[in-house]
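In the current project phase, our protein records have gained a structure token line. A sample record follows, to show the layout:
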Amino acid sequence: MRAVVDTNILVRAVIKPSGTVGPVLLRLRHGDYTLLYAQPLLEELVDVLNRPRIREKYRLTDQDIQTVVSLILLRGEAVVPQERITACRDPRDDKFLEVAVAGEADVIVSGDQDLLVLHPFAGIPILPAVAFLQMLDAERR
């Protein structure tokens, strides 16, 4: 399965691995899906995880951030969008749609209502993390 995972889900999975979205990274580590990403998505993730308020509150280290980036580089697939998309009411979220379309994603995973309201987009389901994890479970059967 090919998935684009919104930054908010990845950040939540990093800061609280035992939380409801933590399994998204665990399942990536196990190779249960391919994470599609583009350089701007990686940069946004690193930027958010490096914010002093987040680093201090969740005691994130450089190693924690490097570990998640390394996992994405190992288990993910880099995509270079060729088409500019302006469909989301928050223009900053259009980059997730661009990666999904360019990478022929099977799903976009997000907790952001600005993306979820577009479900499905160009035939690609946009689902919260819990529904995505259920999809992965169903695929295993």
